[in-house]
């Protein structure tokens, strides 16, 4: 393979121009998908974290089982099960619905554990002070505990969000036309790796600023602890 | 003489097998300042925390300002506005300014609008001489200032009784005076107060009554001069002797 062959296979401007509309559509879908699954997973996480503040063992054991289950299952397996398995139970779901359900279960479990750690990092005296002024348990949680909890685990939340956005690429297996799926389409039509290369670059450009931000936050927290 | 504003009878508290309060009766008259002293683990904090139901008593009755606190039908969140509490570790909300700390319950519990809540919060801060620190976060305030903000947070709700659990024992000695001064002013304004503290000087000067607790019971009570000067019970004598040695 000559250098020119290499350039032609991975960095062809011509191919890129040809594939760009397909890639762009895929990129937009990835954004939309992220905008759906991140809040969904986060809400799932908040629900799990709130449930974990209840002392009752009728809540605690099912909760532990739930979180363990969905942290153990590979997300890809979960997604394929929801998409291809549920129809056997008479439940047809669209690709987007399948992805939404899968991420709600998987990502929710992770966000839930992070938020739970955050809630536990807030001293109990905060809740007591809030309750002593007449705030309800829920108000104390919402106004006093959660804001501090989120701040305490912000790097973990951002890190998880980063993983979630990357993970949206598994939606390609249920033919949801997000960035990776579109790149593979373009690659198979053009017989060229340039679209895949371009998709990788787009992911990098999208996520690298977040990675930088995360590093800075982590360093700041380190410095704060010292 | 008006009736008691706070009336606790036959209070018991168990933590599992641990019997921490063993039948405590406490009557507090309006405008009275009651001091509670006693060795570590004698149940002082538990008693105080039962009085606003941060801790659920195992048995007994509590009435505050005519409200039966342990009645199922009582809205405890409403009742708690009449019972201010100040903690040893301040427990200010670190993500809110002093003003935000004081205004939170005014807004969320009493349902006041932002402007009115903040105006009242400023008044409360002014009463503890911290109006100029309204915009500061707890991390930017000294321990003494933080405790005074915590007092403002409680008094802003216009409680009928204030409970203090060792309000000065987490403070550097030079910061104690400011908090005690704020408490004294509060007392002069007519506030009913129950104070757990070992600040003997303050007790002598300001308390109407001193209660000595040991082993989950009230052992002895009376005017400060009597309790400190001529305690009747051996245990009281031993405890006061020990404190005076520690402070000498
Ligand atoms: N939540 C709890 N669970 C179990 N035991 C508790 C709890 N809170 C208090 N206790 C126990 O109850 C007893 C009384 O505690 P309390 O805090 O009321 O004492 P105190 O008189 O305030 O002591 P100190 O002067 O050290 O503050 C102690 O033995 C303590 O360990
Ligand atoms: Mg105590």
TrEMBL record, chain A:
Residues 27-215 form the ABC transmembrane type-1 domain. Pfam families: BPD_transp_1. The lineage of its organism: Bacteria, Pseudomonadati, Pseudomonadota, Alphaproteobacteria, Acetobacterales. Gene3D superfamilies: MetI-like. This is Amino acid ABC transporter permease. The chain crosses the membrane at residues 22-51, 63-86, 196-215. It is a multi-pass membrane protein. Keywords: Amino-acid transport, Cell membrane, Membrane, Transmembrane, Transmembrane helix, Transport. Part of the binding-protein-dependent transport system for glutamine; probably responsible for the translocation of the substrate across the membrane. SUPFAM superfamilies: MetI-like.
Automatic annotation (TrEMBL), chain B:
Keywords: Amino-acid transport, ATP-binding, Cell membrane, Membrane, Nucleotide-binding, Transport. Its main location: membrane. It comes from the Bacteria. GO terms for molecular function: ATP binding. Residues 6-240 form the ABC transporter domain. It is found in: Cell membrane. InterPro entries: AAA+_ATPase (IPR003593), ABC_ATPase_HisP-typ (IPR030679), ABC_transporter-like_ATP-bd (IPR003439), ABC_transporter-like_CS (IPR017871), MetN_ABC_transporter-like (IPR050086), P-loop_NTPase (IPR027417). Gene3D superfamilies: P-loop containing nucleotide triphosphate hydrolases. It is a peripheral membrane protein. PANTHER family: AMINO ACID IMPORT ATP-BINDING PROTEIN, GLUTAMATE_ASPARTATE IMPORT ATP-BINDING PROTEIN GLTL. Belongs to the ABC transporter superfamily. This is Amino acid ABC transporter ATP-binding protein.
